[in-house]
């Protein structure tokens, strides 16, 4: 609303200024006056139409990025709770559960990187609701990392998370290095 008021104020000042200038020197043409008015009116309509200004956050956008702060042995079928939240626009990722909930229908991109401790294995999948999608199996010699990326079409309320599956249960990370992470965002 403040932006709209500011634009209206600038519009009034420019029109009055142009009229005053026209009376004094005769150089402010009606074409210039109309062009200024149309440009400012167009700017006002764009701001009003979107409901957005420079200081307003788009409440329909959603994005998150979180990492794991400690290494751990996952229980069978345990959801990985990436507990260090870097970004959580719209608060759709819950670090206490490790679950992202789609705020509206759309196309989303998700990424996950996990690391295993030396000579340990890990099997995790990215899940959509109760369905496995893509797997990560970083290997078992030395420290290993695996990354997956996927684009999913989601409905409002769909849940996306990383969950242990199978025999490998060792995940490696640290509060300083953040080797294991999970992120996603709304594309459209």
UniProtKB/TrEMBL annotation:
Which UniProt keywords are given for this protein, alphabetically ordered?
A: Collagen, Secreted, Signal
Q: Which SUPFAM superfamilies match?
A: TNF-like
The residue ranges of the C1q domain are 57-188
Compartments where found: Secreted
Report the GO terms under cellular component. Answer: extracellular region
Short name of any one Pfam family annotated for the protein: C1q
- According to the record, the signal peptide region is 1-20
User: InterPro entries given for it?
Assistant: C1q_dom (IPR001073), Collagen/C1q_domain (IPR050392), Tumour_necrosis_fac-like_dom (IPR008983)
Kindly give the PROSITE patterns that the UniProt entry links to this protein.
C1Q, PROKAR_LIPOPROTEIN
What name is this protein filed under? Answer: C1q domain-containing protein
């Amino acid at each position: 609303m403040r932006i709209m008021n500011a634009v209206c104020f600038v519009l009034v000042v420019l029109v009055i200024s142009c009229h005053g200038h026209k009376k004094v020197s005769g150089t402010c043409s009606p074409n210039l006056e109309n062009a200024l008015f149309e440009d400012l009116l167009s700017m006002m309509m764009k701001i009003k139409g979107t409901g957005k200004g420079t200081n307003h956050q788009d409440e329909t956008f959603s994005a998150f990025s979180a990492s794991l702060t400690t290494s751990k042995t996952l229980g069978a079928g345990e959801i990985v709770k990436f507990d260090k939240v870097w970004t959580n626009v719209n608060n759709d990722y819950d670090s206490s559960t490790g679950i992202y909930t789609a705020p509206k229908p759309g196309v989303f991109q998700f990424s996950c990187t996990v690391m295993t401790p030396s000579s340990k294995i890990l099997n995790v999948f990215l899940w959509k609701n109760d369905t496995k999608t893509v797997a990560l199996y970083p290997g078992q010699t030395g420290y290993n990392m695996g990354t997956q990326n996927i684009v999913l079409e989601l409905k409002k309320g769909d849940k996306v998370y990383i969950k242990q599956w199978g025999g490998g249960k060792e995940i490696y990370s640290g509060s300083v290095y953040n080797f294991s992470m999970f992120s996603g965002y709304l594309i459209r």
